[in-house]
Amino acid sequence: MNAMSRKAESFDFMFPPSERRRRLPTNCRWPLSIALVAITLIVIFFAYHNPSLSDSNILSGYSLEEIKPSSDSRYSDLSRLIPQLYKPFLHPIDAETFIGENEVEYKIAQNPPRFTKSLGKKVLLLDVDTRALNGEGGMMNDHISYHDLSPHTAGMLSHYLYAMIHGYEYKFIQAPSYTDRHQTWVKVPMIREALKTYDYVVFMDADAVFHYHHLPLEWLFNHWNITSDTMLAMALDPDADFNKDERGNVNLNTGFIIAQASERTTEMFNIWEDCVTDNKYANCSKWRYEWSHEQAAFSNYLRYEYTGPNEVISLPCAEANGYPKKADLGCTGEFVRHYWLDKGATVGALQDAVTQYAALRLHDQFHRHMKSTLVNATGTTLPLKEGEGVVV
Fold this sequence. Notes:
Blueprint: H1 3-9, H2 32-49, H3 77-86, E1 97-99, E2 105-107, E3 123-129, H4 151-166, E4 169-174, H5 187-194, E5 200-204, E6 208-210, H6 217-223, E7 232-236, E8 252-260, H7 263-274, H8 293-300, E9 312-315, H9 317-320, E10 336-338, H10 345-368, H11 370-373
Parallel strand pairs: 3-4, 3-5, 7-9
Antiparallel strand pairs: 1-2, 5-8, 6-10, 7-8
Helix pairs in contact: 2-3, 2-10, 3-4, 4-10, 5-7
């Protein structure tokens, strides 16, 4: 048995083989606020107060010093606790395969893999919006009710959670507004600006979320063959006439973008933003306001400009676009769910991203401490006779 196999086996107690796998039903969702409180209390209590901490592999690799509160506001208690909660579930970055929830096996395209270690803060997960988002249930509202959580907020919180789990950076840019085109265009210059600081920028629309929060981006990069030459990777849209460019090819969807920093990438983003001036591409100005805006501009013009090996990667719609209800279109969003016509589903997706893992950790915690949490009184008979008892 090789080291990779042994490493993968260590996660079986959380994600066992198919014949023993038990998954939470999608309709079994606890209130998110309660789950988050439970997560925090569980990890804080056992990290700081469990005398057998040194014997517990749940927090292996973390010293008491590492989990103490930091004076750096960038690293709040929660940003340290969340990675510890999800640590036992994390899929190895260098694993050759990943088995999805429907027992489909996915393999990496690069073997040996290009990425073998976490990229950490070299990766930015980016949200961009021109709106205030300070209404009821909005991301920028200082106080929101759980029951008023908007789908937009749920999507952004899902991105924030995923970044914390894997140690990536997260930023929300409240962008300035354009006066000469539709506001969906703002993602183009904002991604370009972010690439001045980060090696990789992963942009997501608020209605797009990662399906497997324990699956690192680095593994997906290996799977999707993100090379040193790659500038952009985007998912194909569903194969329908209204999703095709003027040459009859299916459009690339800008709701999920992987961008890698390079001079050539910066050049491409500059040309992309300037496309509507018609200086380089005649008639690109039609996409100032006509749907699908910046997406149509890229699909009609720029993808045919940058045709080097792996420069622009078209990700399968089945893996990085759509959701299961759109299986008839061939877009089930195995890794990235994009809920274009069911935006409210992001709330349930966020709930699942928290409660699935928290429930399994709670169950594991119970079993690890059964000497103190379980009273086995099955050896007695009821009613109890005089002098008999159950020691609790």
